[in-house]
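Journal club side-thread
Mid-discussion, someone asked how the predicted structure for our own chain would compare to the paper's figures. Pasting it here so we can look after the session.
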Amino acid sequence: MDNATVHKTPEGLQAIRDRGSALLLLLPYSPFLNPIEKCWAKANQEVRKISLMTNEILADCKEVAAKTVTAESCGNQREQARLKNLKKKEKENKGKSSLNGMTVTQKKEYDAAIMRAKQEAAAAKKAAEGAGKKK
């Protein structure tokens, strides 16, 4: 859990203990461990664009900001991390592999073709072993 005060109230802590669980807190301000932070950052970005004079303006602004927070704008954390790692590996392996210059889709297709070939080879080996036992 994050370190928000509301998460550490005596009632909340007791409810956690009553269920046989323990409270594990994240490091102080660790947005990389809490993907919702990216959504809040997007909403805050929209709110800051508007000069707030009254609570009504703030309420309207919250509605507008909430509509801008989508799965696409916040991003799929796992997919973004995977693509970032893939780009990093491509950069590290530049000139070391025959796979350079392939797009992510091409690499996926290449990997799928390798897996199919391995599966076919394993199936053929199993069939050959089965035929050998029947003799």
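Post-session note: Residues 5-99 form one domain.
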